[in-house]
Predict the structure of Arginine biosynthesis bifunctional protein ArgJ.
Amino acid sequence: MTQRSPLAPEAFPDLPPIAGVTMRVARARYKNWDRCDLTYAELAEGTVVAGVTTQSKCPSPEVEWCRDAIPLGSARALVVNAGNANAFTGHRGRAAVEAIAAKVANHLGCLPSDVFISSTGVIGVPLPVDKAEAGLEAAFTAPACGWEEAANTIGTTDTYAKGARASAMIGSTRVELVGIIKGSGMIAPDMATMLGYIFTDAAIEPKLLQQMLSAANKRTFSCITVDSDTSTSDTVLAFATGKAGNAPLASMDDAGADAFQAALGDLCLQLAHLVVRDGEGASKFIEINVEGADSDASAHRIALSIANSPLVKTAIAGQDANWGRVVMAVGKAGEPADRDKLSIRFGVTQVASAGLAVEGYDEAPVAAHLKGQDIEIGVDLGLGEGRATVWTCDLTHGYISINADYRS
Amino acid sequence: MTQRSPLAPEAFPDLPPIAGVTMRVARARYKNWDRCDLTYAELAEGTVVAGVTTQSKCPSPEVEWCRDAIPLGSARALVVNAGNANAFTGHRGRAAVEAIAAKVANHLGCLPSDVFISSTGVIGVPLPVDKAEAGLEAAFTAPACGWEEAANTIGTTDTYAKGARASAMIGSTRVELVGIIKGSGMIAPDMATMLGYIFTDAAIEPKLLQQMLSAANKRTFSCITVDSDTSTSDTVLAFATGKAGNAPLASMDDAGADAFQAALGDLCLQLAHLVVRDGEGASKFIEINVEGADSDASAHRIALSIANSPLVKTAIAGQDANWGRVVMAVGKAGEPADRDKLSIRFGVTQVASAGLAVEGYDEAPVAAHLKGQDIEIGVDLGLGEGRATVWTCDLTHGYISINADYRS
């Protein structure tokens, strides 16, 4: 891993075990490196699954495999390969996915469709089946590992391991949720846009879990962007082992369903922020709040137009209160906007309202806000009730350095 | 001006005078600099005008002024202020535009609506009327200047003066076209996306000139992008003085209309390429050709998705044949695409076809192509007859350096 992001949390958090989940890692050596790069999670019988995947029109065969298996609702294992995305590899890529599923199914005595698979890394090189199979053999007999080791093993260009936890009371039963995630570049909204895995011991029907995950995704993973580029491999999966012994949740009307949805949403938000905080080259974490838009969807598109604007992102990197670039980004979004009703603030300081700079605008508090690591930009369209929040990072020399010579 | 772009032409071209057009420049000192920053073009009586402006929902008052005046079809003067965009400046910005138009109209004895005005520079600071008026006084009595001086005076972050010429035969009369243009950042398609001015001595009806300019714009200025950011001030105006004495063109069926349209299109393409070649921080000029798409519009959107992808642009900067990022950019465009029919080439070398890398792919010729300054990426969707070409530049440390401390 390269130098730890300046926005990283101080340490990997203390995460509880999840009953019914055993994590193991191994060296498949997908690249010429000496690190674990294959993660294998064994899930107890009866585990249910939900998931969201990339909107890319050129998805990897792993994504297609997961899309087919998610509606069946049951899971026994997860395999994550790091160092090779296996995307755009034609029939050879599909064969590699099928071989992995068959090998794990044979080992566990389950259906191939109970095996969930992700791969991340360079595009266009078929995943070597021999390395995957040898890696799996090693993983099957490896000792169980902790969350941090698993989180490190799914990473590629990540500069730190990312994990988070949440919990909820379902009736009198406390259920735990743990998530690990990887991602720092090729991050854009419009779906999961990274690899994330959530494990819980809660008992819950897969359809309800899917409904809750989709709802959480919409307000979390779909609201972050690093560089507007959408991966071919993005996947978030949630596995529920049912080992907590709560009365199984089957509908949002069940006692504890609201609490579980809240905990799941909280966990997803933590994980999404961890990805932004590891945005390639990031030196600032930026929250963009848009209100007063024509609709929530319109607010979301305007917020993303700001968050993806290279000129806004470089201004923040330069600690430059260049709010004109925010006006530009609102204007280019193609959404309803009236220049003369528009208000903009940085942090708590109003800089422009009703179409021009505020009377007696003092840049000092804005400059002080921009010197910090956590930046907030607020935009009020002054048109309606639509609102949205998105999160992004700044655009720095670090992003260029990382991406101008990633593969070479 | 900062260091001249490595993609700049060797020298400013030799451009002929256009009968009926007199260029003058002056120092309005809109910024604390010692350079001419006000350009004043006096146009002969009878000059007609056409124009295209930004699609931004937050346009500058200059853009609104031009939008109102263009349909009236007649022009006597052009004023371009550099160093201050006067955008998002409310009633004070509008008052500045009206004051400039009034002063020039009074000087020439024409209507205010015959005066066309553009401003470019920082957003959010009202254009100082006193400086504009003093600058105009100086310009009225300044000696006529050449095209290169005018091209330098409309520039801001441009690293070189940009001009081009074309000519056409209308019947037995040769007509000349000259254009000057500025722009290097905040360049995105979806309209003019920069300030460009075209002057011709041809006699032509303003409605036909508008039709021809709009058609040329669609294939030239609307097909370039530097950073996906759309300016609040973008404007391209075409002025025709009629002094060549040709039989006036009134419809595309008139003799010479096709030739004039071709010359205008050629001139616009030259000017558009000059802007891309001065893209902030650019080290490579990139042409992206998409074919086999569902429609021309779909091909255009896919081409722009590739051209605006930070990961594609940084890969080219790093001379890295990372064609997986092209797959990613096709996939994220949201347009019809079938991964398994997709083909990609760099220059003349096919790298992937039918959904995977070509058999025996040799990276050497691609690496050699990427070492050059002029890069071509070809994508064949394999679906239909839709095609499009767009032009962009790479994304380098230079872009970050320029934009992380532009205003400060």
In short: Residues 21-276 of chain B form a domain with the L-amino peptidase D-ALA esterase/amidase fold (CATH 3.60.70.12). Chain B has eleven helices and 16 strands. Chain B touches chain A through 74 residues (CB under 8 Å).
